[in-house]
Specification:
By secondary structure, the protein is of the alpha/beta class. The chain is built from 57 helices and 20 strands. It has a nine-stranded mixed β-sheet with strand order 10-9-8-5-7-6-1-2-11, sandwiched between helices. Helix 25 crosses helix 26, helix 38 runs parallel beside helix 41 and helix 47 crosses helix 48.
């Protein structure tokens, strides 16, 4: 303990969770004893004073070394760890511990000792001086309850601070030696015969006979308090008994002090000689009575009698003042006589003195006081300045703590804003606006209040004093306020007032530090509200530092109020900001394992937590917990990894089902909310139960809470702790009780599930991980008998210690504990949901949302990597197929390619799913992603399926190309014939004697060409009438569906999409429906919207086909018809009752548009692929070759140039265009710009923020009306702007082209040494690059023919020309504008990014806000923020005015809605999921969450009305006050972008 003589040991040091604190280890060395005592006494273990040492083992050396590392085994004690003595005296250990503890730990030690009924140190001897210290501060925390006989008739009780209770003091001292134990004698005085207890350590106790080293001079004090039972109480009134350790001659100062403060002093001695007589004679004039207890030493009886006679006049002695205790004296008779003497003294009205009043005597004698330090005195003065003003609590609270008076009204308004029970006929948003105005008025009134003098002094006390003085200040405040509160309770005891009055009186009379902090919280909240509403500027805030002060108090171990038990309210912003400050002060290391307790009132919840963790939750009468408080416990750094947390956050709660509150109007609701909140916040919940009467009601609340929390995705551990259980109960009985309990819990779970309308059978085991063997705990009662004089039950501490160990390890780090920011968000969501009627439906899971957003980002990254590889794979497959001759692509080869591609796709899919699985399992948020995991998997498979489909399309095109070319004479056969004839012509010309001129040579060539061409079977393809083919397919489709084209329909040539207009005959309505439609035009607008959407979808498909290189295939028309039929068969279309005419006309317009496009692409394809046309292009090349060969020119260089220009350059450009789109998308998604595209939510935020900055109605209208088009334009515009300004595109082009040229160079190097034949060289070259470059067969004409060209020369020239190609191609690309470049790309980057942020494209059925869920396929649609429904064209059917209701409010109101999906019938808004089951619309997290769209609506109300052909909405007045800054703030908060 030596290190702690200067740096005192603190309570926080002992509260820390570490391996040693969880072990119940027998001390093996002297250095272990202080720590053993401290842990035991704080755990209320009655064996704490046992200082016997166990036998050491080899393993104990490590344990001792650990303890020594903490400062154990120091030199303050006269022995060290190598001491061979058996033990130390318990009082030596006590003195050493107290001397090394700070004032607050001393206070806690004495408080726990008092509960254990140990005698407490009153005067603590110093180590290095004869002075001692009066421990007044250390005892100030102790409160004792008693019923003196003077109050027995009224059944009243008295509860007072121990140091303030005046009573007679009876002191026992020793003069000289004594053969019997004085301390044992005192134990018998204080204990009933049938219940002996060792208040004082005596020689017959374990280690009690060890010689004291530092404890001599210690004065201990114990008390006797009557219970109001005359037949069993030892004394009728309270009495204090003190005991001086050591001889009075050696400790005269302590003795003199006792003579000053005591009513009577008993001097125990064996003999009195002359020296003793002189010593005692100095007491002459003392008003204290003196008694002698003589245990005569043999041979000195007469001498003692003689000196007693001399002392009689000095000390006013009589025969009654001398009690003799001989060896043969009957102990029982002697004790009766002694107690009788003490009783008679008390009957004579002796002087009474409180411990606090003893300070005068101490000061007079030079005895130090533990309260004499400057910090304590300053703090005490500050506290007294505040509490001295409190004459009557109720009045003081109303005059000084005024803001709390409005809390119930404030709470009621906030709840009504969520529940809208009193709405009546008032429009929802108007009603909410009125409520908000009322709420704002209350906050404004609070804000206008000036910080009162008492509260100002309190703020100065916790903000301007030193940390140690602050601790003193709060303790002094607590003592003083508790004393005042107890006085109020005592005055209330007589009479049984009405229930409501009792509750209000109890609440009004309660006053503690928490009320002052609560008031600070309200000042803070009021100011924050004014700032957020724009009423004051940020720099006008005066109370912004308050959360920091509260965070400091939490770090010092003071419990922080979480739930205001009086108003059933959480000051959310205050608590959140305090926790935020705390997180900052902890350096971000704030993972919290949250442990809480629930149970009935007075079941020992607070005591259990205090005993378990050494905490300081209020437990005395009048200070019972109301609401909920939280306290912080540090986990040792070396233990944090094992427990996977940095702190324990312990939550103590008020009693559930309190009888006097249960009958109040909101009593049951308060209990439900408290239970749900606490269970929702916790990782481990202790359900504390004491008696069967209240157990069932409490369990119902707890089970309901667990059911709710399970439904929102949390699964805290639950332990049932049964208190006051006898240890003799058989294990079998406990097991049977557990089985019966489980049956009860199942019944309660079913009832709770029915109340929550879950619509499924649920058992208790479905919602809680419950095992009776490990989740049922039985604790003996706290007291070993009936208070006030009984000690703590010895089995209680042991059982609590075992429970603590189990609690610490039960969570096992999974799911990972939340840190403070996460806990704050979780608290906010829980409380917001509790304010709504339907908790489960209303709950927004912030951790799941955060996890989902993070997972979406991760999934997007993985998905893009997957897509990038798939694009490259398909690019290689397409290149490979284009390089193959048609006759090489037989069915078997195509099947093999398809199988290989599918295997690669599957391999990549498995890799991405494996990566994502590891992310979920390894991440802290994995537990929140289980419900979304299937969505991610499904979207991965959809992506894979899409690429697989693209692969099949490529193979299909290759197959069709083979079929088409196989019908005619093979072009390659024709080339072969031409080249043979050209060779013959060359030989013929060379054999002639006279050299031919160019003109003659050309005539010979023309004749040969005509002859070969006339003999070939190469015919031009026949053009197909696409319009007629598609019309036939349309008629077949309509016939299958039992519908006919109307007579005047005509050819598809006459139809285009742009010419489609809605007609009255399209709606097949009854007379009444038609009449209603005349006014509402609902179905007309819906049908038009569906038609436009479908035409747009088909137009995208047509455009896609138009951009491909393939010819028309009849599958295109069939696929279009399938798309139309699928949409028209959906439920929302069926509900419109559209006529057959609508379907026929719509198909005609779509297919008419498509037929024109498809005819054009077919004709273009025919022209490009016509063999006759193709061979005409080759004619010039063949003639050029003939001239060169006839003239014997060196053709290697020219052919190399031709090869580079005609083969490699187009191939490289094609390579660049195929890969540049992928590179652009990858570049955008990886650089800083990608923040806008990380998830749909982020994209929504950035887009809406941009719109707000632009503040343009046309842009907003386009965003709402044509979201898909808007997004595409937004992305494309961003890409164009970005690459116009940046040079990154040129770098990408250079990088891609360089990679391609490197491949070409590598292929050249590999091919040049293979053969000397040019033809063989080219075949090998093309084979190497067949998956990279599409080498044009036309470009190889002549090069392959001239087989005499030297391959090595040719390669050398190609190398040289290749170097010129790169700058040439890059220069040509540089000349292109950005739009042209993007149009040439095979993979469109804007489309890839669009797919990432667009998702499923579904919009809210009410307000048209787009879904933000990941991927294109998911089980539920949701959005972070919804809009006023008028922005989605919703209007009142009667007035035609746009609706201003917001979905998030409407679906939780009592309102009704009607739409096409309800077939025009009104439907309750609360039951919207019956109509739209795939949409999840949750309430806004706060009242300002939708300010963004409120601002937009009020800015452009008239414009939206004109655009929608409606009347402007009637907006609530407060919408007009919303500023652009507030709109942006609400947007940032909604998307968590602050």
């Amino acid at each position: 303990m030596e290190p702690y003589r200067s740096r005192k040991l603190r309570l926080r040091d002992l509260q820390e969770i570490n391996p040693e604190s969880l072990q119940s280890r027998t001390p093996r060395a002297v250095g272990d004893l202080p720590w053993h005592f401290l842990r035991k006494v704080l755990a209320l273990d009655g064996t704490a004073r046992n200082t016997s040492l166990g036998q050491g083992t080899p393993g104990d050396q490590a344990g001792r070394e650990e303890n020594e590392g903490q400062g154990e085994g120091g030199e303050i004690l006269p022995h060290n760890n190598t001491d061979s003595r058996a033990s130390l005296h318990p009082l030596d250990v006590l003195c050493a511990v107290l001397l090394c503890s700070d004032s607050f730990l001393q206070q806690e030690i004495l408080s726990r000792m008092s509960m254990c009924q140990f005698a407490l140190p009153l005067l603590l001897p110093a180590l290095d001086s004869p002075r001692c210290t009066l421990l007044l501060w250390a005892m100030r925390d102790i409160v004792r309850r008693q019923r003196p006989h003077s109050l027995a008739q009224s059944r009243g009780f008295r509860e007072e601070s121990l140091v303030l209770t005046p009573m007679p003091t009876v002191s026992f001292v020793r003069l000289g030696s004594c053969r019997f134990s004085k301390s044992q004698l005192l134990n018998e005085v204080l204990s009933p015969a049938q219940q002996p207890h060792d208040f004082f350590v005596h020689r017959d106790m374990e280690s009690g006979n060890v010689r004291r080293e530092i404890a001599d001079g210690l004065v201990e004090i114990a008390w006797y308090f009557p219970a109001g039972r005359e037949n069993s109480d030892l004394f009728p009134e309270p009495v204090a008994i003190t005991n001086l350790r050591g001889d009075i001659e050696s400790h005269w100062l302590q003795f003199r002090f006792l003579t000053e403060v005591s009513s009577v002093v008993f001097i125990v001695t064996e003999s009195i000689g002359e020296r003793e007589c002189v010593l005692l004679s100095s007491l002459q004039g003392s008003t204290t009575q003196y008694y002698f207890i003589l245990n005569h030493e043999s041979g000195k009886r007469s001498e003692t009698q003689e000196f007693l006679s001399k002392l009689a006049p000095v000390l006013k002695l009589s025969k009654q003042h001398v009690l003799e205790k001989e060896i043969g004296t009957n102990q029982e008779e002697f004790m009766e006589k002694l107690c009788s003497v003490i009783g008679s003294i008390m009957d004579d009205h002796p002087k009474e003195m409180s411990t606090e009043s003893m300070t005068k005597a101490a000061w007079a004698l030079g005895i130090r006081l533990d309260e004499d330090c400057e910090e304590c005195q300053t703090a005490s003065t500050c506290a007294k300045e505040i509490t001295a003003e409190i004459k009557e609590v109720r009045h003081y609270k109303r005059q000084t703590l005024t803001l709390q008076g409005a809390l119930k009204d404030l709470n009621n308004v906030e709840r009504e804003m969520c529940r809208l029970k009193g709405q009546g006929d008032i429009p929802t948003e108007e009603y909410k606006s009125r409520l908000k105005e009322k709420w704002l008025q209350i906050r404004a009134q609070q804000y206008e209040r000036v910080l009162p003098d008492g509260l100002t002094k309190f703020v100065n006390g916790i903000g301007m004093l030193s940390p140690r003085a602050i601790h003193y200040f709060l303790k002094c405040m607590t003592f003083n306020l508790d004393c005042i509160a107890r006085g109020n309770l005592l005055r209330q005891q007589p009479g049984p007032p009405k229930l409501q009055a009792v509750n209000e009186s109890s609440s009004d009379s309660s006053l503690g530090v928490e009320h002052f902090l609560r008031e600070l919280g309200q000042f803070y909240e009021a100011e924050y509200s004014m700032m957020k509403e724009g009423k004051i500027a940020k720099n006008q805030r005066k109370f912004i530092h308050f959360p920091r002060l509260a965070a400091d108090l939490m770090l010092e171990g003071f419990p922080m109020e979480l739930v205001d038990g009086d108003a059933s309210n959480i000051p959310l912003q205050w608590v959140t900001d305090v926790l935020t400050e705390l997180h900052a002060k902890l350096g971000g290391k704030s993972r919290m394992l949250v442990l809480s307790v629930l149970g009935g009132q007075g079941t020992g919840k607070s005591t259990l937590l205090n005993t378990m963790f050494g905490l300081q939750f209020a437990v005395s009468s009048g200070r019972c917990t109301r609401g909920a408080f939280m306290s912080l416990i540090q986990v040792a750094e070396k233990f944090q990894q094992d427990l996977a947390c940095d702190f324990l956050l312990v939550i103590d709660t008020g009693g559930l089902k309190v009888p006097e509150l249960a009958k109040l109007e909101d009593g049951c609701e308060h209990d439900n909310e408290l239970a749900t909140l606490v269970v929702g916040l916790s990782d481990v919940v202790i359900v504390n139960m004491e008696n069967a009467t209240d157990m069932k009601a409490v369990l119902q609340l707890v089970v309901h809470a667990f059911l709710r929390i399970k439904e929102i995705g949390q699964n805290p551990q639950c332990l049932f702790v049964h208190q006051n259980i006898s240890h003799v109960s058989a294990h079998g009985q406990h097991r049977r009780d557990g089985e019966r309990l489980l049956e009860q819990l199942d019944e309660m779970t079913k009832a709770a599930a029915k109340m929550e309308k879950l619509g499924k059978e649920v058992t208790f085991l479905d919602i809680v991980n419950y095992d009776p063997e490990t989740h049922e705990w039985y604790l003996p009662g706290l007291w070993h008998g009936f208070p006030p004089m009984v000690p703590v039950n010895p089995g209680y501490s042991k059982s609590v210690g075992e429970l603590k160990n189990h609690l610490i390890w039960i969570q096992s780090g999974w799911p990972p504990p939340k840190n403070l920011p996460q806990l704050s968000e979780w608290l906010r969501s829980l409380w917001n949901a509790l304010k709504h009627e339907n908790f489960i439906v209303s709950f927004r899971n912030p951790l799941a949302t955060e996890a989902y957003n993070e997972a979406s980002t991760k999934f997007s990254e993985l998905d893009w990597e997957f897509q990038k590889k798939m694009h490259l794979l398909l690019c290689e497959q397409e290149t490979f197929l284009q390089n193959q001759a048609p006759d090489e692509l037989n069915t078997e080869r195509l099947t093999q390619i398809s199988r290989e591609t599918k295997q690669k796709l599957q391999h990549e899919e498995d890799k991405i799913l494996e990566c994502f699985e590891k992310y979920i399992e390894g991440g802290a948020s994995g537990s929140h992603l289980v419900q979304f995991k299937e969505d991610f998997i499904r979207n991965t498979r959809i992506t894979m399926s899409t690429f697989d489909h693209c692969s099949h399309q490529q193979l299909g095109k290759a197959k069709n190309r083979r079929k088409r070319l196989g019908k005619n004479y093979s072009e390659s056969e024709f080339r072969k014939t031409i080249e043979e004839e050209l060779g013959k012509l060359l030989d013929n010309c060379r054999s002639r004697a006279q050299k031919l001129s160019n003109e003659e040579l050309e005539r010979e060539f023309q004749a040969m060409w005509r002859e070969v061409l006339s003999e070939s079977m190469l015919f031009s393809s026949v053009m197909r009438p696409i319009f007629q083919e598609m019309q036939s397919l349309l008629e077949e489709d309509l016939e299958r569906r039992g519908k006919l084209m109307h007579q005047d329909a005509g050819s598809l040539l006459h139809y285009t999409m742009s010419s489609f207009t809605m007609k009255t005959e399209y709606l097949d309505l009854t007379w009444s429906e038609a009449l209603k439609e005349l006014f509402t035009k609902e179905k007309w607008q819906k049908a038009e919207e569906i038609a436009m959407s479908l035409m747009h979808q088909c137009f995208v498909y047509i455009e896609e086909k138009a951009n491909s290189t393939a010819s028309y295939n009849e599958d295109y028309c069939i696929e279009l018809l399938d798309m139309i039929n699928e949409r028209l068969q959906q439920e929302d279309v069926s509900e419109l009752h559209m006529s057959d005419c609508f379907e026929v006309d719509l198909k005609c317009h779509i297919l008419g548009e498509a037929a024109g496009v498809f005819q054009e692409i077919h004709d273009c394809f025919m022209r490009e692929t016509d063999p006759q046309q193709s061979l005409k292009k080759l004619k010039l090349q063949y003639f050029s070759i003939l001239k060169d060969l006839y003239s014997d020119k060196e053709v290697s260089q020219k052919r190399a140039r031709d090869f580079c220009d005609q083969c490699l350059k187009p191939a490289l450009v094609d390579y660049l265009n195929k890969r540049l789109g992928i590179a652009i998308a990858d570049d955008i998604l990886r650089i800083g710009q990608s923040i806008n595209y990380t998830s749909r939510g982020v994209f929504q935020f950035t887009t809406q923020k941009t719109l707000l900055e632009e503040n343009s109605f046309p842009r907003y209208l386009e965003y709402i009306e044509n979201y898909e088009g808007f997004v595409k334009a937004q992305i494309q515009g961003h890409l164009f702007d970005h690459y116009r300004e940046e040079k990154g595109l040129e770098d990408m082009e250079r990088e891609i082209l360089s990679a391609a040229i490197e491949k070409v160079q590598h292929a050249l190097e590999n091919s040049k040494d293979q053969t000397d034949s040019t033809m063989a060289f080219l075949d090998n070259f093309c084979q190497v690059l067949q998956k990279d470059l599409v080498i044009s067969k036309d470009g190889l004409v002549g090069i392959r023919f001239i087989n005499t060209v030297n391959a090595k020369k040719f390669t050398t020239f190609v190398h040289a020309f290749l170097l010129e190609l790169e700058p040439q191609i890059l220069a040509e690309f540089k000349k292109l504008n950005i739009e042209s470049k993007f149009s040439l790309l095979s993979v469109k980057p804007e489309e890839e990014i669009f797919k990432r942020v667009f998702g499923c494209g579904k919009q809210c059925p009410f307000c048209k806000v787009p879904c933000e869920a990941v991927g294109a396929d998911h089980t539920e649609h949701f959005a972070s923020v919804h809009r006023p429904q008028g922005l989605g064209t919703y209007r009142f059917s009667e007035r035609g005015a746009l609706v201003c209701e917001i979905c998030t409010t409407a679906v939780h109101s009592n309102g009704m809605f009607q739409c096409l999906e309800t077939q025009g019938e009104y439907h309750p808004c609360k039951e919207y999921r019956a109509i739209f089951p795939d949409w999840r619309i949750q309430p806004d997290p706060d009242v300002n969450a939708s300010d963004y769209w409120k601002f937009v609506f009020k800015e452009f109300n008239g414009e939206f009305a004109n655009a929608y052909d409606a009347e402007p909405a009637e907006l609530p007045g407060d919408w007009e006050e919303i500023t652009q800054e507030q709109a942006l703030q609400s947007l940032e908060e909604a998307f968590k972008m602050k």
